[in-house]
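Why do we bother with a discrete structure alphabet at all? Because it lets us treat a fold like text: something you can write down, compare, and reason about line by line. To make this less abstract, here is a complete entry for Adhesion G protein-coupled receptor F5. Read it the way you would read a sentence in a foreign language you are learning: slowly, and without expecting to understand everything at once.
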Amino acid sequence: MKSPRRTTLCFMLIVIYFSQATLNLNLESIVHPLILHEHELTEKEPLREKRAVASSSPVPAEYTVDVEISFENASFLEPIKAYVNSLSFPIPGNSTDLATNILSIEVTTVCRPAGNEIWCSCETGYRWPQEKCLHNPTCQEHDSSLAGHRCSCLKGLPPKGPFCQLQGDVTLRMSVRLNVGFQEDLKNSSSALYRSYKTDLETAFWKGYSTLPGFKLVTVTGFRPGSVVVTYEVKTTTPSPQLMHKANEQVMQNLNQTYRMDYSSFQAVTSNETKFTIIPEIIFEGDTVNMMCETDVLSSNVSWHHVERHSDIQNSSRFSVYTTVLNNMTSVSRLTIYNITQRDAGEYICKLTLDIFEYESRKKIDVTPIRILATEEMKVTCDNNPISLNCCSEINANWSTIEWKQEGKINIPGNPETDLESSCSRYTLKADGTQCPSGSAGTTGIFVCEFISTYGARGSKSIEVTFISVANLTITPDPISVSEGQNFSIKCISDVSNYDEVYWNTSAGIKIYQKFYTTRRFSDGAESVLTVKTVTREWNGTYHCIFRYKNSYSVVMKDVTVYPLPLEPNIMVDPLEATVPCKGSHHFRCCIDEDENYRVTFQVDSLSFPAGKNIMCRDPVIGVGEPGKVIQKLCHFSKVPNISGGPTGGIITYKCVGSQWEVKKNDCISAPINSLLQLAKALTKSPTQDKKLPTYLKDLSISTGKVKHEVSSFPGSLGAIVNILDLLSTVTTQVNSEMMMNVLSTVNTVLSKPMLSTWKVSQQQQTNQSSQLLDSVERFSRALQTEDSTFLSINQTNVQMRSMVIKTGHPKTYKQSFVFSDLDLWGNVAIDKCEVGSLQQDSSIVTVAFPTLQTILTQDVQGKNFANSLVMTTTVSHNITMPFRISMTFKNINPSGGVPQCVYWNFNLANHTGGWDSSGCYVHNVDGDSVSCICDHLTSFSILMSPDSPYPGSLLGILLDIISYIGLCFSILSLAACLVVEAVVWKSVTKNRTSYMRHTCIVNIAASLLVADIWFIVAAAIHDHFYPLNETACVAATFFIHFFYLSVFFWMLTLGLMLFYRLVFILHDTSKSIQKTIAFSLGYGCPLVISVITVGATQPQEVYTRKNACWLNWEDTKALLAFVIPALIIVVVNMTITVVVISKILRPSIGDKPSKQEKSSLFQISKSIGVLTPLLGLTWGFGLATVFQGSNAVFHIIFTLLNAFQGLFILLFGCLWDQKVQEALLKKFSLSRWSSQHSKSTSLGSSTPVFSMSSPISRRFNNLFGKTESAHFTQISE
């Protein structure tokens, strides 16, 4: 039974058949009965459902039906086609159970007889499928063939279908040239000209291209220069060249001739008609890449273009282009790129040209570089341990294989292991001592891993492997035997220089503290030397010298035998000194605190028999002596009571007064503290001192807390505890929080109130124990490591500590507060986050505050200044390399006690016993009992000669700053003006030799002072913005300031000597060249010699400049005298010359006289020096006055005023007051009338006031006594 679909189809065909009543043809005679090939339809399913969408209501289904109709008379084909084209769609149809509409009927394939063959061709808009063209013979019908398509006609209808298929629409990108001038309005789509052109051209295009099969749309897209090139797009099916030419002719006919369209310029480019393939899809450097274009348009005119290089590709060693036609149906062009590089990346165009058509296809390729990851260098020890060399590719490039190669003098076989999926390969090798040549430097081999891809890409990586033979160690000397207290040294020598670590161990495996050994590396080996200066019994044993390289260890051992023997400090002798009466006897004792059997011998080195003395003091324990005799005895053998048992340490001093021995000085140490002191001394000599230190600090803290009541009976115990802390602070490089707590617990005990009376005794004896204690705490603070804690706080009654670790990320402001409520004292310290951010990561800032330390630190020897607040010491674990500022606030104990002054404790003062120093710190604000201090550096002119400068924050300091800055500005401007004036009037005022030399001196004086002032500004900038000071820049600034200011003085001396010579040695005449040579040698040569000698003699010891200012050092080397002495000598010489010259010039002359002009010049010079030299002398007189401490503020102000305006004085006295200069200037500017009137008056000419320094330099003298490395601060009142 037939299906309903086929029944409907038959019905529809019958309807179409019977609907042709108006067609004037006898269809019955020409049309065979309609035959639906049942067997074919069954196989091919001609009923193809096009759309069927499920919904709640019935939706029509759309079908495409292939129908084959045969005619006996082929002449009726065209009328049938015309009739089908004339039908109006849709055509409704009726059925008993559903409605069917015919939407369209199109003729796709027509077969005609051609001789003995049947040729089947496709109608317009249709073409044969490609697979049918490949398997069926073709024919050629010129009228219907498409452009270059050889498969528009087949011989015979292909069995089993399908028929010709509908072509897709294409967009032809076309252009044509108009031979008219291009106008700019054609670039503006909104212009009238553009719209007019577009309208006219699109009208002509529509009329011409509407004749093309499948035409849909044409649009003008723009205009470009080249006459006028019109670009437009045509949407249609692919037409044949013949149809396209006809359409173009129609366009020409329908376009106004004024446009002058060029028929030969028509071009058409079509896209998406070419199959463009690239192999491989992912391209790597070195691959061989094949690009292939395939199209059914038959043409051998194919070109390849690289867009980025703007060049056509031709055959070469790396590029190959091959074009062919396959089976007379497909054009194929292949571009092959060998060993592709990243420069070859970009967009490629394959373009096939046929007539006016260009079939273009584009594709962009990326070339990925190959990166092989591997360690570039490795060092391998020849110890037969397996070592792996690893190579991996960053990307998987379809590697086909990975190869390993060896290069170099050494060949070590290995086993490769490759995992292509992970793109990695491992090469494992073992090197033993027989394979590695001897030698400390090792032998290098190159191992290359090479990755090879399927398409030819190669990537390689070279690994440089240095094979190092195992270190052979020798140790000297032979077995060591020493007595306790002696020294020994062990040298461990390696024949290779490569190692990661060298260390020494005890036989128990405990590392020796690293301060006992040093290691040096040489080109052919290395050596480590273990040196012990004072041997204790702990050093008895076996020691291992270990060289480690990676996981390989070379070990050699040495036995050390230490024979017990008391150390000299542990041997107690009584008496230390004895006076024995004749015929008397005396017992000498030699004791140790050990239970050992030693052989003891007494030896008499010398005997003396002094004259008889008046023995008045006698004591069986102390001894005998005359009045005034001083005897020292060990406290252990004295009459000091032993409270705690055990040997008492220290020395007690007696003095014979009258007939009794009196205690002059008691430095006895209680037995417990003495025991701790001896243990501390032994610990510093122990090979494992860093391991024992934590336990010892804990015992020290506990012991000092227990025996603090004994300190008053044994004053030396306090000093012993300070010595213990000093010894221990040099032991370790790292201190943890528990160790720091024990240290501060001990410090808290020694600074408690009951101890203050003992500290006063220490002060009276002028010891530096308080400074030593502060220094010890500072060293412990610098070594503090707070593990994982960012902040650490320790609070004791008499000491508090805060610390912060600098972590990565955003820096935080360091701000800490300290409050001692029992003593009503407080203080704050702050460091801005900018300064904190400049510190190294993981460094620590530690601040320790002491409320009672200020009372025991050495005060001003004159009793004028005294500490008036708590003491805070701030340390940083790493060196400070950037500008640094710290601000502090103190509670002032006695606000009415005087003017507060911020100071810090300088350990180098008073012969390294320490003292208060104000350098680098100033009072920022005083508010009631609160004093704010800032560590900063400012400069005042008066500091140059004054070691005791005014406080920068005071009214006087501010006033001197203002004067200095204003005067310096005036000086620089005046000196520049002076040089300009001299340049303008030079020819007019240097007509004779005397005037020439005078103005030469003035110009050099002005130039030298100008350069010196500029260098002063540089030094001030270094001083104010770089703290600690940049040493190199500071040395350079100091040198040039010294040199140029000395040049000012020596040129002034030259001027005076020249005057003296011209008036005293009248008959002697010297050429101008000789005078100039002498002048420049004196003006610049002498200052250069003095400056070079000064820096050469002091800079190697780093004492050329001051610690807190860029100026000559005073405290350490007195280098400042290299400036002061020449300056003062020149002032005295010039004063003398002035007196001689003035007296000479006023006396009547006998014999030859200078000419009138020269005498006028000489008189002018004498007046200048007569005015300037006293002024300069007064300047330095006030400068000398400021040197003395406590000098009146008036001297500072006058000194600053006179020196700050030196440039102005030179301009006035040296230039503008010179009559000849005035006349030359007036003449230069055509003011002759005013000049003639002015010439009647007398003008005082003068030389430059160069004998004094500018205030910027003089102010630096106040900094010469201090260091800038401020660590501990307090506030002082005076």
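What the structure line is telling us, in plain words: The radius of gyration is 55 Å. Residues 955-989 form the longest helix (35 residues).
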